[in-house]
From TrEMBL:
Gene, per the UniProt record: LOC111483371
One GO molecular-function entry: transmembrane transporter activity
Protein family per UniProt: Belongs to the major facilitator superfamily. Proton-dependent oligopeptide transporter (POT/PTR) (TC 2.A.17) family.
Entry's Gene Ontology cellular component terms: membrane
Name this polypeptide is given: Protein NRT1/ PTR FAMILY 4.3-like isoform X1
Keyword Transmembrane helix applies: yes
UniProt main location, coarse: membrane
Amino acid sequence: MEMERRRDFKGENNANANAMPSEDVTVDWRGRPSNSVSHGGMRAAAFVLGLQAFEIMAIAAVGNNLITYLINEMHFSLSKSANIVTNFVGTVFLLALVGGFLSDSYLGSFWTMLIFGFVELSGFILLSVQAHVPQLKPPQCNMLKSDGNECVEAKGLKALIFFVALYLVALGSGCVKPNMIAHGADQFSPQSPSQSKTLSTYFNAAYLAFSIGELIALTLLVWIQTHSGMDVGFGVSAAVMALGLISLVAGIFYYRNKPPQGPIFTPILQVFVAALLKRKQVCPSNPHMLHGSQTSNDKVGLSSHSANLIPTQKFRFLNKACIKNQDEAAKESPWRLCTPNQVEQVKILVSVVPIFACTIVFNTILAQLQTFSVQQGSLMNTQLTKSLHIPPASLQSIPYIMLILIVPLYDTFFVPFARKITGHTSGISPLKRIGFGLFLSAFSMVSAAIMEKKRRDSAVNLNQTISIFWITPQFLIFGLSEMFTAVGLIEFFYKQSIKGMQAFLTAMTYCSYSFGFYLSSLLVSMVNKITSSSSNGGWLHDNNLNKDRLDLFYWLLAALSFLNLLNYLFWSKWFDEHPSVSQKPQHNDNPHHGEDYHIYNFNSSKNNVDDYVP
């Protein structure tokens, strides 16, 4: 019945189905099949973009000023406060995997966002209540003037309330983030040429919404926290998050919803177990002899035409999971015998891991711009006019101001121009976009190293304080780099051909942020330890940048970035040259020509895997 409903809903014959990706079954809010007239498109995605802008606005305002609240209100030490902030940020991005898993397996994107959006909202409210009620905080005390004995650190019930509130925010935000991108992208059907092109616009619009939310958080909301108190600031974050949930619910009648597929890891684990159990067997020379009729367990599949899928030679060991034991008359367990569809799905997951890993160094650079570069600015001349000074932390808003201007221009002018040359619906492929972003990120560190050398020499040798505007190039270059890399990575992961795992794959991109921040902390510790034999006690040993050698640390990051770029070029070329599924070149009259959606040809009459054309 399910396959009949899919065929009726598509309205296409089998020949057309073989030439195009099989259409995902999507439903409306009542569970009925959706239609392209009333559901989906940019109208539906706009409501999700509203949630994205408001959600990042709410949590960025808390995260960017959290260390101030921890020191001044909760009376934690500087080192403990820094660790709390780092752990909070890392937890948010790691919990994205939980949100992606729950969405794809059990809840669906909409309900995952709604449920955990309220979890995040409750965390903001509890933070606001604690910040407002004196009995829920330690007694007031000036940590800067105290000798450390007068101020009482938050402990017991007060600390418990704070950490419960903080990690409610982390749990909610982590589970909401990947589903915002995935649910918005789900509103566009790859079967529609016009919507397929609009999908690229959506990814750019999503980053524009993110930039707007970050900019408002770094300026207006942080200003409210500073001048009206953290209780009001947390309350504003709660109100903003509530607006985001209202935006999400307002679009309920227009959404195309992808139903959850059941446990998404079960078919994947079955492949590894079956391949391991049959590791001593030899794969037949003819791939058509491999088992391919068992489809009942394909919860997460590549195509409804999986019976004729030919296993590729990539990660050939996994093909052993498809070897049928001819000696046994009884049907083998799905933990001993898998379909080529399952095997190819696992190959895709394994194939994208090197691409994911290459973006960790990129996010390590992002960590520097949020820490050391802000400290650089605190030692520079922040005066704009006689009475107006630029807060060093506001330097982080520079990339977002630029991106709010550049992203619409990129999508309006560059993408159509590049599309005419490349034939690609996104102008340039996600892999090329990521590569160009990684290339630019290396130059942001080169700029940072040169400017830090100039700043340090002026301060130490000439006793001069140069203008804070000298370090804006590193923020501008990295902002442009982030537009290419972050958006390209999300688009690349979302368009991988694993039905029912879009939210989880999108969640993987957020883990790169977490690993990047952890790598940053590790690098700082390692650099200090390795360079501590010098007379200065290490490049980053002192709290005074005029004594440290931050410029050398930036040069090290620049070198790592170039090496990481070479590593990425190798793996991206390997990914293109070794497809995980059999593909057939498409004619130019095909509406999906030049797209990243993998077009499958399941022609069982061929003995060899079809050539791949990226």
